[in-house]
Amino acid sequence: MSATTHRRAAGRAAGTGRATGGAYTAVALLILAVMLFPLYWMLNASLLPSTELVRHAPTWFPVHGTLQGYRRALSTQGSHLLISLGVSAGTVVLVLLIAVPAAYGLAQLRAPGGRLLTFAFLVAQMIPGVVMANSFYTAANRLGLLDSPLALVLADSTLCVPFAVLILQASMRGVPAELSEAALLDGASKLRTLLSVILPVSRNAVVTASLFSFLFAWADFLFAVTLTTRDDRAPVTVGIYRFIGAHLSDWNSVMATGIIASLPAAVLLVVAQRYVAAGVTSGAVKD
Amino acid sequence: MSRLLRTSRLFRPAARPGALAALAAAGALTLAACGTGSGSGGSGGAPDTLTEIDYYDAAPQNTQLPQILDECGVRNGVKIKHQQVPRAQFMPKLLQQASARSLPDLALIDNPDLQQVAATGGLVSLSKAGLSTEGLYPSIAQAGQYQGQTYGIAPGVNGLALYYNTDFFTRAGLEPPTTWAELAADAKKLTQGPRYGVAFSAVGTEEGTFQFEPFFWTARGNLKELDSPQAVKALTLWKDLVGSGSASKSVVTWTQADVNDQFMAGNAAMMVNGPWQLPTLNADKKLHFGVVPIPVPSPDAKPVTPLGGEVWTVGHSKPAREAKAVAVVKCLLSQDESAKWSKDAGYIPSNQRAAAQLASADPQLAAFVQEVGTAKARTTELGTAYPKVSQALADAIQAVLAGGTSPGSALSQAQSAAKN
Amino acid sequence: MSITVQGRQAATTAAPAPPGGRSRGPARVRWAAVAFVAPAWLYVAGFYLYPLASSIRMGFQDYTVSSFYTGVAPYVGWDNYSKVLHDGHFGETVLNTVLFTAGSLAFQFAIGLALAVFFSRRFPLGGPLRSLLLVPWLLPLVVSGTAWRWILDTDSGVLNHVLLNVHLIAHPVPWLASTHDSLTAVTLVNIWVGIPFNMVILYGGLQSIPGELYEAASLDGAGGWQRFRHITLPLLRPVTAVVLTLGLIYTVKVFDVIMILTQGGPAGSSQTLTTFAYNLSFQQLEFGRGAAVGNLLIGVAVVFAVVYLRATREQRQAGR
């Protein structure tokens, strides 16, 4: 990163001219083009007949494209997408319910044993996924929770809670004590202080934690395949896997499914991003 | 499955789903989970639903199998709940189910894994249950046995043969190779521009070992002695094919499905692959190909290929369920169903007579049927020690093809790793 | 953190003020704190304790396929560990893990920070473009990993095609098919996967640094690099510590990327401890040894958790 870039970045509050803004947009587009090239390649593949894919001279543009892949994908993956959305959203809620109070307790109220808890969360992250999956399977089997979205939410949350606690804690530690003390003096309960003072200020971290909880749950394959036995209860990662198997020599359907599967969540991301931006501005107003 | 679970919940007082606290406590509960032997639920009477698990995630097998299961279910008055998991998740899942004592009633297990699973004690002895393996190829019957009992029976088997693109061969004025020397010479001649002479899978798993075994065993190699001169000879053949540019360096990353893609795209004039690719290959009308047995080192030798394919097993539960499951397996193995399965899924019937009939009716399968007669089950030499040796051998193949190690030293390393 | 910055910081309420000095109330206050943290403790006990214990126990057992059904597995002491340590592939695997982790972390973090700084400026379409960078995360790795396999293919891959055309290479590079390049290739793809994670979290961190600090520093005559060095980096430290520690743990744990691209091959050249543990357990069915390798990784996590706690404690003290 160059110093110039940063100087400009630092001036973000001051507002900038149209011309430089346009140049920045151009650079951003270039960055995006490089980062998303593999996706373009999938899009390209999704429109190409299968044998073109292993051709030795790459076909850069799908001029002789076929939409067949999309037709097939749409008809099979719809319900899996809904399940994934539900499970991911549920995971976000559960994660926030546990992580927000914990982070507040650790960062602002200095709960005893806080360092030990942080330590436990960090170490817990390294327990091999297969080992976790094994015990969840046993538990879900005994509780009759196999094929239940609840089991998936609970299992997926283990991927996110430690992350969320750490990131929220890091952010809340930065919230000045004066703010919460003022609220407490005003007679607000700790819970109200958390909800009406601390949370709005650490909105960024909350959104980041939610976003990644959503993404971690969305991308999970191991727990999904372990805890579901019925095809109609499987989230999209498993749905796509089955679809790949069924169309092994039909890569354009596979890539089309991949693209379609990412669309609803991509829309959600853009919407969430607007929300983050709004959060930032409202935070700025508070200053 | 859901029905089953709902019934079984009634028998489990601990089951109160929904509450967060319940699963939080589950960690503690699971400690005591083993040993209750609750089976797959159901009461003493005849069950109305059986569970089944397999790893056929690819077409056409994944669409054909449920049909056949449904048929056999209807015939036995039982509904079969079909579940398919990815290959890589199959053993983990089966083991989870074993430790939760909830093994499925029916499982279609890869034959080299059968002995491992049978060793758990979780499978019903099919020979005791009255199923016979008479008329099946002896190697197939043997692949389903553990400690003198039959635990698994294959509805159909597969092997490996050499596919060749007839257009390329005719244009070059060549006949399909029968010996290693011809294979190497033809491959070299057919390598042109972006096209390679031959493609095979040398991926670093059991799949790569499986593809190498026809050459290894045909050269009279023995899995108990990975560093024998015969083994070195077989690996040298592969090394030379890649070294001379007749086969792509990418073979170490290709699975058998990738190899098939390459062949279909015209990137390879020949490939080593199994009969399960036939339905896909035949669907491409522009592709013209033939199938011959795997080439041999000297004209008088016979190809020895590994026996591929899955065996039906029955998991322990309650006597009534087990009996029902055995009846379904009997139906699945009947000549009718077995022949249908083989035809639709690209398999060779395990029954010798049915296989011979199929070979005369379908010339594409003739090469495979011919090989099944001399095929070898992978666990014959080593039993439950097979997975480890297979891994060592796959590592050696990759070290030679991708890392430039000599076949001799790679194989002697493999031998010491396998003994560890 | 320079003294000037601290002085400025106190002047703005939204700035991360030095913590401490708060909630030094009576014991009753601490009980409230305990109540807030209690669900998290229960969560740890309910969800992680049993898997952790069973993994550690399995590492000391001769755990076979039959053990899953019978529950019987004899204890063998440190046998599994000694066998793993004497495995011919162990040294190479550890080295691969270190190189993979260090390479991934360094580039993910550097590129992620650069992008975060870049995108914290306001410009047309900046917001939507930034969130689109996250899209790779929405694709199941089975799918994007397969796309990468095509891109990196020796003969038909577009990467080699481009590199050949611009004469950066003379012969196609066997990215995934050679023991020399496979680790580079999987690291490359893993960096790609990890950049959005780093960018978003660091971006969040940058957002909470008040713009007034930069303005004030400008008035004091600080240049762009100085401001980055003396404002951005120090104030980003808590977030940096989280990103690096979690990034490290997530990277050591990476499984899918490697399994899809190379399966740890060719010949173990891209094998890391995580894929090695999987391989021991599910290819060779040596569950005890697989668990032993997994436990070594847990040991690694313990070490870095301690480092993290140290780093954050110093931070707190530095803040006082």
UniProtKB/TrEMBL annotation, chain A:
One of its GO terms (cellular component) is plasma membrane. Its main location: membrane. It is found in: Cell membrane. It is a multi-pass membrane protein. Residues 81-272 form the ABC transmembrane type-1 domain. This is Carbohydrate ABC transporter membrane protein 2, CUT1 family. Keywords: Cell membrane, Membrane, Transmembrane, Transmembrane helix, Transport. One of its GO terms (biological process) is transmembrane transport. CDD domains: TM_PBP2.
From TrEMBL, chain B:
GO terms for biological process: maltodextrin transmembrane transport; maltose transport. The keyword Transport applies. Keywords: Signal, Transport. Pfam families: SBP_bac_8 (PF13416). One of its GO terms (cellular component) is ATP-binding cassette (ABC) transporter complex, substrate-binding subunit-containing. Belongs to the bacterial solute-binding protein 1 family. This is Carbohydrate ABC transporter substrate-binding protein, CUT1 family. It comes from Actinacidiphila paucisporea.
From TrEMBL, chain C:
PROSITE patterns: ABC_TM1. The chain crosses the membrane at residues 31-50, 98-119, 131-151, 183-206, 235-252, 290-311. Residues 94-308 form the ABC transmembrane type-1 domain. GO terms for cellular component: plasma membrane. InterPro entries: MetI-like, MetI-like_sf. It is a multi-pass membrane protein. GO terms for biological process: transmembrane transport. Keywords: Cell membrane, Membrane, Transmembrane, Transmembrane helix, Transport. This is Carbohydrate ABC transporter membrane protein 1, CUT1 family. It comes from Actinacidiphila paucisporea.
